[in-house]
Every structure is written in C-alpha cells, then in structure tokens.
Design a protein that fits this description.
The protein is mainly alpha-helical and 383 residues long. The protein contains 23 helices and no strands. The chain is flat and about 65 Å long. The longest helix is centred in the N-terminal third of the chain and has 11 residues. The protein has 3 domains: 130 residues, Ankyrin repeat-containing domain (Serine Threonine Protein Phosphatase 5, Tetratricopeptide repeat), CATH 1.25.40; 106 residues, Ankyrin repeat-containing domain (Serine Threonine Protein Phosphatase 5, Tetratricopeptide repeat, Alpha Horseshoe), CATH 1.25.40.20; 124 residues, Ankyrin repeat-containing domain (Serine Threonine Protein Phosphatase 5, Tetratricopeptide repeat, Alpha Horseshoe), CATH 1.25.40.
Length: 383
C-alpha cells in the first residue's frame, strides 16, 4: 500500500487526507482524541477521533482501517463516526460503520438515521440505516419515515414501541397512539406550532387525518396555519379544511401555496432583501420565483415564471440556479427554457450549481442546452 498524501505527520492528518498507508503507519495512535477538530454543521466538540474525521470526509478506506480500533467512541456531545458519515452523505462509510455503531444516540437522543436528514435527506444513507431497527428509536421518526416512503410505525403491526403522549406519538409516527392521546390536542410549543402543523410539514398524511378535526384553524406565532406549513402530500387534505393564511407573495412561494400565488399575483416582479437561501450568500433583490424554485414548489414556479423569470439577485443567482442547486428537477424543467445560459457574477451557470451537490438528474437535463456549457470563471457580467 503506497502513501497518497505526500507523508502525513500523524493519524488525524492521514485520516483527513484519506491516506490508508499513513493510517496504517500511525495506527498505534488509534484511540486518542483531539479537542480542536471542527466539522461543518457541527458545534466544536472535544474528544473527536481520527475515525470521525475519516467518516466526515468520506474516506472509506481509512474508515475500514480505523473502525476496528475506534468504532463506538463518542465525542463530548456523544456524536459518533457513523453520525458524521450519515450527515455528509457517505454511504460506503455508513455500510462499514452501521454494524458497529447502530443505535448509539447523542445527547439529544438522535441516532445516525436522524443525521442522514441534515441539512437535507441523504436517501442512500437513510435507506441503509433504516434496515437496522436500533436506528429507528430517534427524534422525528415520523418525518424520516414519510420522506423515505416506508411503512408507517403502527401498534397494530407491532412496530411501535409505545408512546407516552401525543407529542411522543407524533414523533414516532404512530396513528393509533395519536388517536389514544387526542385529548392532548391543541397544545403548542414556543413558536406556536401544533402537532398538526408538524406532521403536515413532515408530509405524514395519515397523522394529518387523525389530528385535523381537533387542531384545524390553529395559527403559529407568525399567523400561519397547518396548511401553510404542509408538504405537498398534505396540502390537498388541508385545503378543504383551512383557508390560505399567506400574507403576501413571498410567503405563498415559500410554503408552496398556489392559491396564495394567484391571490397575490399583482405583487410579482417585486424583489426583497434579506431573503436567506441555504448554501447561497445572503444577497438582496431576491424574487418570489427564486424562493419557490429553491423550495421545489413546481406549481408556484409555473405560476410565477412568466412574470419573474430572467431576474438575478444581488450576486447574480437566478431561480434556475436555485432549483438546480437543490436538485428540484421539475422546477429545472420549467425554468431551463426561460433562463438557460444565464451566469452569475463569477460566470457560473445553473449546471455548475447542480454539480456542486451532485444533482446528477439536473446536470443531465441541463446538458441538453448548449448555453449551459461553462463560461470562463471570475468574469464580471454587465447586466
């Protein structure tokens, strides 16, 4: 086995660079922890291991070398290497670590299965972890189950461990337990969110049906009802029971409310500053179309495209780029004929944005357009 990193100076350096030969060379250091290891999206915690570093960066070869020595170790917050691999979307590392660390929880009670949803679902990792029943006793299981399309947790099927109250039943995703604790319906958290709002947001249609009669019409601290929060799978159910609670076009675009987009159609073309989009620098002059595209609301994108397509925000990002970055293929298909070839201030086009988070289906679709071939980088465009 040959060194591929030019010579690491210790085990942590070898793990970060993915050099199996150097990991073998410094294997005597395995089991030692370090307090200055920072991962994206994680708080700076002490007692991190070289295995956690290798898993975070997706170096499966190094993970295989180190697993026997360091698997099962947890940092100050009780996070594991498996959690790091799941959050970063490294299925090969998850395959190695799951048999060794399945079911371990951090201080918040989260297993690696929950980490596979942060900041968005890594389906390959989540499906691997779902195969281990120990991983399912975690926070927001109902949301995970809905996103994966797995069978509901059910007392009837013997797959529910039993809930202690309505909030617990909703977290587990068990309709039978939710029915048992309906007397607790109507309670809300510090943000005014009810159980119905949460299950609608997670796309748990079966739980929405259980809670609807008891909690329909409730509003959160911002005046939004469950329909506003609902994922596409639940909007149809709630549309019959709750009116649109959007206050303007941007709120309608964010929640995917087509009725709200029609209601506030006269506001199309207006831009707003301070609209935050994950993975993109905070910039002014964003449109409702950009918000809808980023969140994958194809219906709203279709309604707004004629009036707002072709606009750029303060750093040159378009609605098509936002959709491509997030991997929303239906939105990309609507916007590509209208915004193909447009570039941001660095000369980057929508296809580049799709490639950054490995949105292969979007990349393949955008490859049909010659205009999406990359222009020279770091070019300032005069628009």
């Amino acid at each position: 086995m040959q060194c591929t990193c030019g010579g690491a100076f210790d085990l942590f350096d070898a793990a970060e660079n993915g050099c199996e030969a150097c990991c073998m060379r410094f294997l005597a250091e395995a089991g030692k922890t370090r307090d200055d290891v920072q991962f994206d999206g994680w708080h700076d915690r002490r007692h991190r291991t070289a295995l956690m570093v290798a898993a975070n960066y997706g170096h499966a070869g190094c993970v295989r070398v180190l697993a026997e020595k360091e698997a099962g170790m947890q940092d100050e917050y009780r996070n594991t290497a498996l959690m790091a691999a799941a959050q970063k979307g490294h299925p090969e590392c998850v395959k190695i670590l799951a048999p060794l660390e399945k079911g371990l929880k951090n201080n918040d009670g989260w297993t690696a299965l929950y980490f596979s949803m942060l900041p968005e679902l890594s389906r390959d990792c989540a499906e691997l972890l779902w195969k281990h029943p120990e991983e399912r006793y975690t926070f927001r299981l109902a949301e995970i189950r809905a996103k994966l399309g797995t069978s509901p947790v059910s007392c009837k099927e013997g797959t529910c461990p039993g809930a202690s109250g309505l909030v617990d039943a909703v977290t587990l995703g068990c309709p039978q337990c939710a029915e048992k604790f309906l007397s607790e319906a109507g309670r809300r958290d510090g943000r005014g969110m009810s159980c119905l709002m949460y299950v609608a947001k997670w796309g748990c249609a079966d739980l929405v049906k259980v809670l609807l009669e008891k909690e329909k019409g409730l509003r959160d601290a911002n005046g939004h009802n469950a329909r506003w929060h609902a994922a596409a799978e639940c909007k149809g159910i709630l549309a019959k029971a709750e009116e649109c609670s959007c206050k303007d076009l941007f709120e309608a675009a964010e929640s995917g409310c087509e009725e709200g987009c029609r209601k506030f159609a006269s506001e199309a073309g207006k831009t707003r500053d301070g609209v935050h989009i994950i993975n993109l620098a905070d910039a002014g002059a964003r449109t409702a179309l950009m918000v809808a595209a980023f969140n994958g609301h194809a219906g709203c994108v279709r309604l707004l495209a004629d009036k707002e397509a072709g606009k750029r925000d303060g750093i040159g990002v378009t609605a098509l780029m936002s959709a491509a970055l997030k991997g929303h293929l239906e939105c990309v298909k609507i916007l590509a004929p209208l915004e193909k070839g447009m570039a941001d201030r660095g000369g980057r086009k929508a296809k580049y944005y799709a490639s950054q988070l490995h949105r292969q289906d979007c990349c393949d679709y955008l490859s049909r357009f010659p205009e999406e071939e990359e222009a020279p980088r770091n070019v300032f465009y005069n628009w």
